[in-house]
Write a structure and sequence with these properties.
The chain is mostly beta strands. The protein contains no helices and eleven strands.
Length: about 120
Amino acid sequence: QVQLVESGGGLVQAGGSLSLSCAASGRTFSIYRLAWFRQAPGKERELVAVISWSGGSTYYTDSVKGRFTISREHAENTVYLQMNSLKPEDTAVYYCNADIATGFTITNYWGQGTQVTVSN
């Protein structure tokens, strides 16, 4: 079984920065893609950023371009989300998501979520 364990998040004032991390652990696996989603109260979960594990290609939703940076660390099986110039509308629970292969099966996994709150 593979687990995604998130850390980071918290409370920050508008204009501030936070960093999230998500580490994959478990039995032998290969990571294909890692992503961050977020869900604000009363809203649907939305994709924030994606990174391919091998080539490092990235995608960002328009609302975070230029402010958020997704990166990965192969040795630690960890993905990071650096969030700068935070806005109150960035307030949400942030979830790590990954496509991971174990053997011949690719499974989609979710982290437990971490709260990010941006105050005015």
